[in-house]
# Entry
Amino acid sequence: MDERIVAVFIPIIITLVAGLVFVTFIYFRSREKQMLIEKGMDAETIKSFYENKKDNYLMLKIGVISIAFGLGLGLGLMLEDWSGKDYWVPFFIFSFTGVGFVIGNLTAHRLEKKNISA
# Structure
């Protein structure tokens, strides 16, 4: 296929997929509300069900994940320079970011539990 034809279809396909995802989200959200009404829930219960819960430790989680990402990037670049292999950077970025997610969530969970019991 000609590259110019493919280049024309890429934004069209991306727009269609984004629109489909948005319409699907709206559809399932309205179906969920209909099911809650059919179950006999009152307006206050439904409102409390959809209220946004504030995450008190969001910045802690973001900080831990950012530090882990930076460590993964730094160690990956150092090992890439040392060994000459190209796979160290993505390996360490994904590994350390995953560990950062786990540590951030565990720390926030422990702090929440500590605040509830205190």
Summary: The chain has two domains: 3-50, 58-117.
